[in-house]
């Protein structure tokens, strides 16, 4: 039975002056999930003015000129689309609806990327300078719902949904959800997660053509007088008699791994200038990498010996279930290793595998606690205590916050007025010494509107070093990419970049393109992608089912652009979820950093046949460049 539609009075936004924008709500149905390859099959746009009143509506089917893909999802057959216009015929009309408005969509980067590629194919540009993701906004609001799917939010907000996966109906539903969410955000005093949209013709955003990873494991250095072995990492610098393209093609065909940088894992450097002052040659000297000339390399290339193939790890005899894997180390017991000099900086060794521990005496289980005030060290200690007692530490005020702890100075926090309006329980620091257990008789209503007692599911709260298995999809169900999302309090004085490294057995990238960052937001295979959901939230999407055998681990890190440190930023929350709108499986709060400018947040790695998520939380005083070099990425000085 459909929920009753929101009344017009509930949709009026004329009093929300801080959120006064002209909006263009968009939904697209597509032939697949990859914007650079797949096509838009239908589009709907609903425009809303600054007062929340609808000002326009447009929808159309589109003839993509290709197979429409999963008809069972969107119901759009080739026959239905045959007489529809192509995108180029309606691009101008769509552009007029989007121009000078903020694009709004549920998973906005998906819709934005597809539209950007369609406008590019029509030889024009997408006239959007800002976008807003209603998924990101609802994650900030943090409602007590099972997931963030459009239908779930519609039911929560009382918006009628008649036909899922119909672009026009989905956009009308989104309109009701968006207005209601803006009111919740205003009640909580949340800033809108607006994302600036650079021109899509910028070459930094152009996906690189697919590059096949080397199928063989790296056997190590080229030995004096020894042969080349398949899997050896070979770099070339300087001029060569044979064209560089031919050298690379012949080497790849022979099973060598041609790399664009030199690291301690490079097997040999090929150069005709032994006195070369190139960055590769200098690094080869520092690392002791063997150097050979082109003639010697060609002789060795004629007889490359067999190597060892990368193989997916064999299943373990008894892989633990997600419920059985809990962290043994408390946050205070995890030691950030001493830094090596920047040039030799190497990522920290991973913490030891935790033993199985039975959770007991967790009086804050199911509660979400916001800590205000205090010195950085005091706030860190308080949030660590919350996790120790079974609760989760909030980064911002949201609907899920059940309690607030006020440390010295916290009484002056600008959020105090809203906390009072929400009637949330407020405690001093002594409350964390002996909080009442859930069975002590506290009335649930006293927990205020932020109570999560009725929440259908809650993420597993992990301290630093905590590990949880990622459940495999049900038989016959296609695997969806896992999403690791990092969020923090909005920053006025610095920018934070979330990045990822897809690593092999040597904890090195197979090639530079396996370093995913703002300037290269996906690796060549599209298995690791950066999604920007707001100025204080970024996501790494990892398609673990499609990662090649060479990729044993994906490390997710964050780095600060500027002189600020993570001690200035405060807590960073990290969640792992099985798709963009699902409830998180695990949550961790990283807040022990002080002088660090780069921070390893989490990793997804293979253990036998199982993929695991680990909350890492280890930091370095050096920046992103040195962190990337430690993983074997060529970074310009």
Helix and strand layout, with pairings?
Layout: H1 8-11, E1 23-30, E2 40-48, E3 54-61, H2 71-74, H3 78-81, H4 87-98, E4 102-105, H5 108-121, E5 130-133, H6 134-141, H7 150-157, H8 167-188, E6 194-196, E7 233-236, H9 244-253, E8 257-258, E9 268-270, H10 279-287, E10 291-292, H11 294-301, E11 368-372, H12 376-388, E12 392-393, E13 403-406, H13 416-421, E14 426-428, E15 460-462, E16 467-469, E17 482-488, E18 495-503, E19 515-516, E20 528-534, E21 537-542, E22 553-561, H14 566-569, E23 572-577, E24 586-590, E25 598-607, E26 610-620, H15 624-630
Parallel strand pairs: 1-4, 4-5, 7-8, 7-9, 9-10, 11-12, 11-13, 13-14, 15-24
Antiparallel strand pairs: 1-2, 2-3, 5-6, 16-26, 17-21, 17-23, 18-19, 18-22, 20-21, 22-25, 23-24, 25-26
Helix pairs in contact: 6-8, 7-8
Report on this model:
With 637 residues, this protein is an alpha/beta fold. It has four domains: 8-205, Ribonuclease H-like superfamily/Ribonuclease H (Nucleotidyltransferase, domain 5); 233-301, Rossmann fold (3-Layer(aba) Sandwich), CATH 3.40.50; 322-339 and 459-630, sav2460 like domains (Lipoxygenase-1, Sandwich), CATH 2.60.60; 368-435 and 446-450, 3-Layer(aba) Sandwich (Rossmann fold). α7 (150-157) crosses α8. The longest helix has 22 residues, at 167-188. The protein starts with 7 loop residues before the first helix and ends in a 7-residue tail after the last helix. Mean pLDDT is 83; it is low at 1-10, 201-208, 316-359 and 439-454.
Task: Give a quick precis of the structure.
It contains 15 helices and 26 strands.
